[in-house]
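User: Is it possible to get a 3D structure for a protein together with its bound compound? The compound here is pyridoxal-5'-phosphate. I've pasted both below.
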Amino acid sequence: MATNKELQAIRDVATPQGVGIQTKVYAAKARNAEIWDVEGNRYIDLAAGIAVCNTGHNHPDVVNAVKDQLDRFSHTCFQVAPYDVYVRLAERLNEIAPGNTPKKSIFLTTGAEAVENTIKIARRYTGRTAVISFTGAFHGRTMMAMALTGKVMPYKQGFGPFPAGVYHVPFPIEYHGISSEDSLAALNELFKADVEPERVAAIIVEPVQGEGGFYPAPDGFLQKLRDICDEHGIVLIADEIQTGFARTGKLFAVEHAGIEPDLMTMAKGLAGGFPLSGVVGKAEIMDSVHPGGLGGTFGGSPIGCAAAHAVLDIIEKDDLCGRAVSIGEQIRSWALELQSTTSCVGDIRINGAMSAIELVEDGDVDRPAADLTKAVAAEAADRGVITLTCGVRGNVIRFLPPLTIAEELLAEALTIIGDIIRRKS
Ligand SMILES: Cc1ncc(COP(=O)(O)O)c(C=O)c1O
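Assistant: Yes, that's possible. Here is the predicted structure of the complex:
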């Protein structure tokens, strides 16, 4: 097999630079929380394919479910000849989605597509056009998802014009001096200055901002949004694409806030490594769209749906919500120790297994250490640990291991990262 370097040379010639890649680890095999590259080097995976393989790479139950489905059929198109794994998955998710209001579900392929569909549904239901999202938000790379995304570089630069009617409000980040009150005041101001609430179809929010930097919505904030949406007849959309499926210690992150969103996007962890996304929402809202208004050739692939059933079984059987909490606590004690012995760990954010450290110079929140962050992730890969960076300022190291990672393996990875940070800072 070719080496990493040889494959990278092909990559440079054959694929565009626009798809930025974070490591030069060309994968040959992956099992649970480890990846082996084409040269046989082994890596501990703290990325899980960006929060996708929550049940670990190639979980045998997922693989078997997919094999069984492949033996039956791989594609008929749900709109042409519907199938059991789709309708039963809908039934299952409707049952476990937060809140008591009757739900319905639609399945698609990517996260961005799920986001697009929530906006279509919210507009059709309300008969309104405007949509509000947050600065620092990431909702995907299609046109409307990009419009909703609250970060220009690299996601939006040069790609406009975007669909009209999208407004951004600052996301509350206490560490950066933006409180929930500030954010809600800005929303109020927006209602006065730019768009009256009666024209707003939806507010979309990540319960924990993902690409933006792993900032959780502060306590009470989502409830306030819920109240505002109820007051003005606005559809509240929770984007659970990165936070869903046990990642934060609950099946869905909004459960921490105890709210029931009107619509919820899901993707990534839903199908354990197979491309499947969905929108679960209040039945009355989901049913506001006319027949034929929703769907797609590959939407709700039988393979993905079969995998998703296995994923839901594993989450329950192996208490992966509990595992996510333990992973978060293991990262917390490591990060606190690192913080007390270096000056660069500005903030520690523990959201179960969606945790992060924000690196700054000399403990100064206003001096983000983006170069250090990049260098740490690069050296970690050289030393056998795959980890990702994120954040609007590029200075956050995020931890998204499979929830099935063994404690010892996580400890080994954290020791390596801690060692690199100590030496470089
Ligand atoms: C919160 C959130 N929404 C939407 C998306 C887009 O999902 P996809 O890349 O599958 O289109 C992502 C991907 O990172 C995400 O984290």
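The mean pLDDT is 97. The longest strand covers residues 355-361.
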